[in-house]
Each structure stands twice: as C-alpha cells, then as structure tokens.
Specification:
Blueprint: H1 3-6, H2 17-37, H3 42-48, H4 53-56, H5 58-70, H6 74-81, H7 83-103, H8 107-121, H9 124-135, H10 141-169, H11 174-177, H12 179-193, H13 198-210, H14 216-235, H15 248-267, H16 283-313, H17 318-325, H18 327-344, H19 349-368, H20 377-403, H21 410-448, H22 456-473, H23 476-518
Helix pairs in contact: 2-9, 2-10, 2-12, 5-8, 5-14, 6-7, 6-13, 6-21, 7-8, 7-12, 9-10, 9-21, 10-17, 10-18, 10-20, 14-15, 16-17, 16-20, 16-21, 16-23, 18-20, 19-20, 19-23, 21-23, 22-23
C-alpha cells in the first residue's frame, strides 16, 4: 500500500485542501498562543485576584499539566469518538473555558477554568495536524506542515508581545476574552470543511464492534506522570530542586519515574492502550521527536532568557522587550515558504533539518557573544537567526516523522510528537532559569576574587565613586558605603549578564549535538508512490 493510496482526504468531498488548512490552523494558533500570552500577565492576574505572584504561577502550571495529560491520548480519543467530533468539541470547550477564565472572580476559579481550557486545548494541535496530513497528498505534505508551522512557531513568538500590549492597554481578562470570537469563527469554519477519512472511520467501527474496555489504569498512570512532571518543572526552581528541604521535588520525581515506568509497561501489553507507544518503533519518528523536543526547548529557553536579560539589565519593560523579539516571527514566516518549495521539489528532509539546526546554533552562539553596550538592533538579528533556524527545520522534521508511520498509528504518533513539542518548551523554560541561577552564582564568585582593595582598578573605581557620592551627600562614611555598594552592583550586573550569555552558549551546543543524530534517519523524501517503511 502506498502513502498516496493510504492518505484519504480528511475534508468534505470537493473542498479544496487549502480551505481545510486555513480552517484548522486557526484553532492551533489560538491554543499555542495561550501557552505564552498569559505569562506576561501573571503579576496583573495575581494583583487583580488578591493573590501572590507565586500562587499566580499555578495559572500556567495547571494549564500545562492538563494539556500534557490530553496530548498523548488524542489518537485514542479521535478513534473512539471520531476525529471531527472530537476536534469540534475541543474548539467549543476551549472557547467556553476561555470566556470563563476572563470572568473568574478568584484564583481558585481561574485555575479550575484553566484546567478545563488545557484539557480542551490539548486536542487542537494533534487533531489539526492529523487533518492536514490527510487533506494533502504525500508530495505536498511539506507545504501542509509549513502551514502548521506558522501556527506552532509564530504563536509562541508573538504571544508575549501581544499579551503585554493587551494587559497594558486593556485588562488581563482580555488575554482570555480574545479567544472567544476567534474560537467561534474557527468552530464554524471547521464544521463546514472537516470530515473524517475512511481509514479512521473503519478504525472507529472496528473498535466499537470489539467492545474494548476503557484503559482506566493507563489513564490513571498518565495523569500521575504528567502532573508530577509539570509541577516539578514549574516549581522546581522555586523549591530548590533536589535540595528542597520539604522533599516535595524528591517525592514528585520518584512518583514520576515509577508512574512512567508503569505506564510504559502497562500500555505495551494492553490490547487497546489509551497511550500507544508503538510509533516509537520507527527510527525516523524517534529521531524527529528528539529533534523537535530539543528545538522547542531551545526556542522557549532563549525566549525566556532574552526578555529576562533585556528587562533586568537594559531596563526594558515587557512591551519593549516583546517588540525587540517580534521581528523574528516575520522572518520565520518568510523562511517557511522557501522550505515548502524545497520539500515540494523532493529534497531529502534530513539535509533541511540539519541546515535548520545549524542556523539555530549560529543564532544562539551569536547571542552568547553580546555585551551590555549593545543597541536594540543588535539584539534583533541574533533572535531572527535563531527563530528562522527553527522555521527551517520544523516542516521537514514533521514530514520525516510521519513518512514511514502507518495510518493506523498516525493519530497516536501525532499526539506523542505534539506532547514532546510542548514538553520541550516546558523543559527549556525550566532549564534556562536553573542554568542562569547556577551560572550567576559561579560568575559572582569568580568576579569577586579580583575585587580586593589592592587591585588598582578597584581603587580607581571606588575613589571616583566615593568622590561623586561625597559631593552629593557631604557624608564621608555614607560616600564610602555607597561606593562599595556601587562596586557590588556592577559585579552582580556583570555576573547576571555572563550567566545569560552562558545560557545561549549551552543552547547552541545542544543544537550542534543534534546534527549527528539526524544522520541516523532513513532517506526522507515525501514523493508520490513512496512505500510505507521503505528506504
């Protein structure tokens, strides 16, 4: 059976696949945007609901945990209820939950509605990607994945800027209300053009005839696994990771390992697993999962570190920092059509993926060479190169991932890859925070080794500072203390800057380390008549 014959349109007969693509990428963009747009509004949300900022972080954690629980089981849900029905239900519930989030009157209410929003939103990415893969023939799936990449890549880039503008000019509640009109339009469009392909209908009928029992044990293990994982990543830095004196991180880590091991053991032996790990038997899919996971970890890590650098050391506010980062989204959009053309001309996806990884490495290495005397323009271009690199490798990685995956496993494969893409972002955010703190302590200690009273440079700095403060205050003792404080401030500023630059250097090395892994993949050209599992 060929890929061309196996891939049946997932749309209404006679509907142009471009209309299908235009309809399904809207809810994807909306859901991915919601993972980042609320981050910049946390302080406003906490203040508006009379909560602390630390407690307000549960607004993000609850959404990510609920999202992570649903993502790996979207394949099972699509077969059980029909992908079209599940997709439309997810859009509707996400829209309703967004409205409820905007109307929340307490933090507990908001967290509850964010859980509902996360559970509904988890079905949007995999479902829309599955519809795109079925709507386009194999030789045009590179173009389809380029369209999907516009939503999955551009949304997290523009999210912080859009969130900052909405929060500053209107209210944090509009961060959620903005989803309502978009969700209603997306629901109407998808209702009109999306249909289930024949192979998925056959799977659903077969499962109903068999009367398979629901995998409640697998779902329970999955819930434990993902909640422990997300809470550890979100609160680990606050709780001092494995140095947590209350043992919270240690307990969560132990539960995560035990639950994950039990989940894999149980699901590989269950006839109707709620999480199907069998797509991981295919080499291309595994490599692409690893590439996408770390690429998004680097994207989110850099997207966390760069605003931190700009706001803490350059004095930018959230909106200005977002404006500096936003041009990268425009160049990502410009890069994707070029990638689509390469894939349509049957260029081996492996080489395009490698090119993208090298560009991402170059962008992060460029950022590691920055200093505290740069202008905004000197921040824009390294960021552009980094995001353009991900834009280059995103579509070919998604094409190569499913090229040798049978249609029967496609739903499970899409859910697993979507999960790893999202979790890569969570890991990157936590990694950047933990790495910056550790390296800041290291550089602060190393810089302090040279700040002794006998160092001529130190003497010159303190003498000039003391003279300036003496002129201002007229108090010699206060002037001496202020001079020493100014010296310490410079040390901490430089230590923090060096720590941020170290983060970018580590991200560059991660990208370089992925290049040899791509060479282990099979030839990846989506051509008409290519056989599933063929070389």
């Amino acid at each position: 059976m060929t890929l061309a014959s196996a891939s049946l349109p997932g749309s209404r007969a006679g509907v142009n696949p471009w209309f299908v693509a235009g309809a399904v990428i809207v809810p994807t963009f909306m859901e991915v945007l919601d993972t980042t747009i609320a981050v910049v509004a946390l302080r406003y949300i906490a203040g508006g609901l009379s909560a602390t900022v630390d407690d307000g972080e549960w607004v993000i954690t609850s959404y990510l945990a609920a999202n992570a629980i649903i993502l790996p089981i979207t394949g099972w849900l699509s077969v059980r209820f029909g992908r079209r029905n599940y997709f439309l239900f997810s859009i509707l519930m996400f829209t309703v939950a967004s409205a409820l989030c905007g109307m929340a009157t307490s933090l507990n209410q908001l967290i509850l509605f964010r859980v509902i929003q996360g559970l509904a939103g988890g079905g949007l990415q995999p479902s829309s990607q599955g519809v795109l893969l079925d709507a386009f023939p194999p030789e045009k799936q590179g173009t389809a994945m380029t369209l999907f990449g516009l939503a999955a890549l551009v949304a997290p880039v523009v999210g912080p800027t859009l969130g900052g503008w909405i929060t500053d000019d209107y209210s944090w509640r509009w961060v959620f209300y903005i989803n309502v009109p978009i969700g209603l339009v997306a629901f109407a469009a998808c209702y009109a053009v999306v249909r289930d392909p024949d192979y998925l209908t056959t799977q659903r009928d077969e499962q109903r005839r068999q009367g398979a029992r629901f995998d409640s044990i697998g779902l329970s293990l999955l819930v434990i696994t993902m909640i422990c994982w997300e809470v550890t990543l979100s609160k680990g830095e606050e709780w001092d990771w494995f140095g947590d004196p209350f043992g919270r991180v240690q307990t969560l880590a132990a539960l995560f390992v035990a639950a994950l091991g039990g989940l894999i053991f149980w699901e590989l032996r269950h006839r109707n697993p709620v999480v199907n790990f069998r797509p991981l038997q295919e080499r291309n899919f595994v490599v692409c999962c690893i590439v996408i996971f770390f690429a998004y970890a680097v994207l989110y890590g850099a997207s966390t570190s760069l605003p931190g650098l700009l706001q803490s050391l350059f004095g930018y506010n959230a909106l200005d920092a977002g404006l500096v980062m936003s041009p990268a989204g425009l160049f990502a959009v410009m890069a994707m059509p070029v990638v689509a053309i390469l894939l349509r001309r049957q260029t081996d996806a492996r080489w395009v993926i490698i090119a993208g990884l090298l560009v991402m490495a170059a962008g992060n290495y460029w950022m590691s060479l920055m200093n505290l005397d740069i202008s905004p323009g000197q921040v824009v271009w390294p960021r552009v190169v980094t995001v353009a690199g991900l834009a280059i490798c995103f579509a070919p990685a998604n094409v190569a991932a499913y090229l040798y995956t049978p249609n029967a496993l496609r739903g499970a494969a899409v859910g697993l890859l979507s999960l790893l893409r999202n979790e890569g972002g969570s890991v990157g955010t936590s990694l950047s925070q933990a790495l910056h703190e550790q390296r800041e302590q290291f550089h602060s200690l190393r810089l302090g080794e040279y700040l002794d009273p006998f160092n001529p440079a130190v003497q010159s700095f303190t003498d000039q500072a003391r003279a300036m403060f003496l002129q201002q205050s007229g108090d010699p003792v206060a002037a001496q203390q202020l001079a020493l404080q100014a010296l310490d401030n410079v040390r901490e500023q430089q230590a923090s800057a060096l720590a941020y630059f170290d983060c970018f250097w580590v991200f560059a090395m991660i990208m370089l380390a992925l290049v040899p892994l791509v060479l282990l993949m099979k030839r990846s050209v989506a051509e008409r008549g290519a056989r599933i599992g063929g070389e």
